[in-house]
Queue: 4 jobs
Job 1
Amino acid sequence: MYPFTYERAHSVEAAANALAGEADAKLLAGGQTLLPAMKLRLNAPSKLIDLGKLGDLKGVQVTAEAVSVGAMTPHATVAADAEVAKAIPGLSERPS
Ligand SMILES: Cc1cc2nc3c(=O)[nH]c(=O)nc-3n(C[C@H](O)[C@H](O)[C@H](O)COP(=O)(O)OP(=O)(O)OC[C@H]3O[C@@H](n4cnc5c(N)ncnc54)[C@H](O)[C@@H]3O)c2cc1C
């Protein structure tokens, strides 16, 4: 990995400001793609802005018109949601 600074965002607004304030900053969600790419030196953000504690980005909402999934909602939460299972069964099927 190349050197980088780390910042944990405490609000969506703070994350957006931190991202706007540094051209090579990157948002960190689960890190499943970004961290391996950084380890392979395929990606070199100057700053990581961690979204992990942003409850505002978590959650599932199901209405008659739409299923809304927050950007930080884990796959497992979506798969376990009974309303999602009714609305879009394929989203609750766990890979065998
Ligand atoms: C073991 C393993 C198995 C996998 N299997 C599959 C598979 O079967 N099918 C498949 O499609 N994928 C698969 N993947 C890839 C996986 O889907 C992605 O790694 C995962 O979705 C990345 O999400 P993340 O939250 O970890 O993102 P991160 O690695 O944190 O971020 C990925 C990118 O998105 C940006 N980003 C993150 N959050 C936001 C946001 N809120 N707004 C804007 N940009 C954002 C980051 O800056 C980064 O550039 C697998 C990965 C692993 C490690």
Job 2
Amino acid sequence: MVKLIFLLTREIIKNKMNIYKEGLERYPKVIIFWGNFLIILWILLGTIACRFFCPLIALIYLLFAVAMIGFVLRKLLCTNCYYYKRRCSLGWGKLSALFFKGGSIEKFNAGYGQKLASLTYGLLTVIPVIFIGILISQEFVIFKVIILILLLVVSIYSGVINRKKTCLKCKMRLICPGCAVKQS
Ligand code: SF4
């Protein structure tokens, strides 16, 4: 009886919250693998770029990335997402369920989770680009230029092109302000 009431309530909230019905219930593993691979590569290139400048800054950058992407944003966003306990485009709905209690979709846009997400991904590119840019302006080293170019290519591909592809099929695309596809 309790389960029936729970399922009914969830259906009412889903309908009320404008869930994108054509969206995928669960994303294929290959998309999840590719999305995570790109983000790990992004953080790795950023860490290498910071390492050229100062090992301590590289460590702080890496710890910041892991703490924000692995925990803080999962707590603030994924616990209130339709994909909580489900396989979203990054699989983080399942990851967040390992650490945090679920919330409700109505709270998805409440609080500062969305703003923190944009700030986090922005900093993960801007910080290493500034540091390696300073070094290249002082001394032109081809390997550092390659790292800079790779960092820009991977972060733009992951943060814009690949995200657009996954947002297209996302159940949250009508609710999520961070959605990369224009709503028709
Ligand atoms: S779609 Fe985004 S907010 Fe929702 S569970 Fe996946 S990573 Fe978290």
Job 3
Amino acid sequence: MSKKTFSFISLGCAKNLVDSEEIIGGLQKQGYRLNTEIDGSAFVIINTCAFLESARLEALKTIKEMGKIKSSKDSQLEKIIVLGCIAQYYDEREMKERVPEVDLVVPISKNHTIPLLVEKMFFPKKDLKGYTLQKNRFLSRPPHSVYIKISDGCNNKCSYCLIPSLRGRLRSKSIEDILDEVRAVQKLGAKEINLIAQDTTAYGLDLYGKYMIVTLLERLCAVKGFEWIRLLYTHPAHITDDLLKTIQQEPRICNYVDLPIQHISNKILRLMGRNTSKEEIIALYGKMRESIPGIVLRTTVMVGYPGEGDQEFDELLCFLDKYPFERLGAFSFSAEKGTAAFEQDQKVDLETSSQRLKKVMEKQKSISRNCNRCLLGKEERVLIDSFAHNRKKAYGRLSSQAPEVDGRVIINHISGVSPGDFLQVKITGTGSYDLIGRSLKQTRKV
Ligand code: SF4
């Protein structure tokens, strides 16, 4: 019986993308063929995000579009499978009330069983005793830069966040499993390993009873063949001296830390349930700058949180001036039903919130521009990611630029290099976020 063709839509964050790639890999191992087009596919899987209202609306819109295709005349689309965070937010009955064409809603805890569920769906009479699920990671993006998800769920209780109720408590992967995954993607050409989780600094607390991110990093540094290890999604309350020492001592660990602080006012940090204070964040900031020379810091802040008055907002602006972050993402608070913050009063009106967001991003633009100007004329090592259509222009990143969220280096008049190559570049121009580089020579073609 020939296996079916399927297509896959992966919405949401990089953690979802990793889940999607593992599921695709597992299905391919069972002989199912991935199709980039919905057209001609027997089934479609939609991995969703639901932690904000806007994400839920996007997920429902996408699922409804698939429903229309499935019920259209001569459609070959037989089945629609929904998973990810919206499968936690709505159970099967609630999802089918919204989109009757949906065939299967799979909770996150069952993601690894999807090849078996698909087999049962298409071959209900088949004896599936002894059916083995095989781990396999399909890389949906150029293999030189890969996300490695080291845990799922979160034990922190930030009052604005739905993730703990959607993805459950912290579940770390074992160090051995992570090393196997990294060795596998290294063989596929990975040069950069981006470690992700809800809170990477809490890694291991559930499985080993203590923080194990340092041990994991040390073990990863013993794996040969890739060059950059990047730590994303840390939590200021869980950064240890040991971790800073390891980042400083291990040359393959990028001198780059993603450190979401969310706010700086003690009043707001308390209301957010961030388990840290202004004083602790400032002390940590100083320690990181001192202990890791040249470190590049990324953060995330939220404006418009209930109770944030002009005073608290000004405190945040002053802090970002005095303690600048080279990289910063900012969001407006979104009141999500099911979170503690949803019930909090003193809501900030949308207009004020968006004005504050604008101010933070204007400030960050000038901070980022000044940071970039310091690189003018410098020689830097660049990882090539992609090319412009005419292939005469390449896009790459410094080790201080994370994929997808930070600026990049644009290199004109380039030839003879490929994604995944490292290039020595002279910075000849700087923008607010991006840099312009001129190729000096190819430092290494692995
Ligand atoms: S650390 Fe806070 S914001 Fe991040 S996933 Fe956990 S609860 Fe949500």
Job 4
Amino acid sequence: MEKIIDENKQGDSLVLDQKKDNQRKLYIESYGCQMNFSDSEIVASILAKEGFNTTQQMEEADLVLVNTCSIREKAEQTVRKRLEHFNAVKRINPKMKVGVLGCMAERLKSKFLEEEKIVDMVVGPDAYKDLPNLVAEIDEGRDAVNVILSKEETYGDVAPVRLNSNGVSAFVSITRGCDNMCTFCVVPFTRGRERSRDPQSIIEEIGDLWNRGFKEVTLLGQNVDSYLWYGGGLKKDFEKASEMQKATAVNFAGLLDMAATAFPKMRFRFSTSNPQDMTLDVIEAMAKHKNICKYIHLPVQSGSNRILKAMNRLHTREEYFELIDNIRRILPECAISQDMIAGFPTETEEDHQDTLSLMEYVKYDFGFMFAYSERPGTLAARKLEDDVPEDIKKRRLTEIINMQQKHSLYRTQQHLGKVEEVLIEGPSKKSDAHWMGRNTQNTVVVFPKEHYKVGEFVNVKINDCTSATLLGEAVGYSENNA
Ligand code: SF4
């Protein structure tokens, strides 16, 4: 959910780009992945041009939008609970109109209007530029729906309104959609085919962020490794491109090199990678540039070759180990995190042990681990019975989480006694006397504030740690502090 407060730069969140002449009020909540939070900034920008400023008070809003997630059943239930709450707010704010955005909107389409009476508008992830027309429709008292998926849309020409911003780090989306068709995943159905954004518009957006004092950018996509710009159009149509287009095409390693070279003092991160699409030149680009952070989120989902096949993950556990070995060889200090699913249909105890042994091999820094949740419309839901009993799913998930906990502590303990460069993002959640920031490995570091400020790069000596956080003391500014 997005808390929106107009504050100074002492580490509290900011709303940038509010227009003083705008009379109407937009309240927006976002759920799910970073892409959704980034999309909400696109939506706020499109509606700012229609006279809307963002507010955090739902009670005063003319338009209330929920950017929804559909990745697991629980995510959808969370949205439905919020819509129930909106009914109560509507009693004290009867003028408010309600719209649903994102993956659940795309999955349910106009059925959302039938199932949730409070909803006036349903807009899919590729239709946000139609919001001015759709808002005009609901202003007239009619329902409005647009869930058309696009082959071109990348919103590259929309300057996001930075919501819930710490003024230091920001998301920049570089691709939309996914062609990978993993059998458990709804994303290809809710976000369409892969298309990449013009690198020029990406560089311009980063330049704008740099000029406004931002120090870190996360390049976003469902599958950033398959970024490929060849003049516009779908990734899958690249083969039909002209020789000239092929010769001048920009892939992900090329984009990383371009951005890191153009802004040597800006820190770069990226998410999310897919092992079957990650290439050595991406890892080499990370090694070449000090300002590309040494952290890779590399979902694997299972350690069993039989299950990886059933998931349509186009790599084996051996090929995954080879990628991990290459990362460790070229980037010895690189942190790696995972996504894991416990209890995928037909998963046996042996498959589960393969997952645990893969984790033992990699010893991830951290991970996102869930029990399998059947998603309507996916190949797994259509072809495979959800046959692993809930109690076994739970037990296996607990074993995966416990192993990750052990490895996370093993990884954080590697930092003890070291001096780490940290970018200060804001106050520590636990103590107002302490700053929190991240090192290049994306590990949270907490240390006393002293005279340091948000947005500064500080060298911190690590004295202690938990499995998730490093604790230390500042020992001076980093050479990277502009
Ligand atoms: S790579 Fe697979 S899991 Fe990831 S978004 Fe694409 S289809 Fe879903």
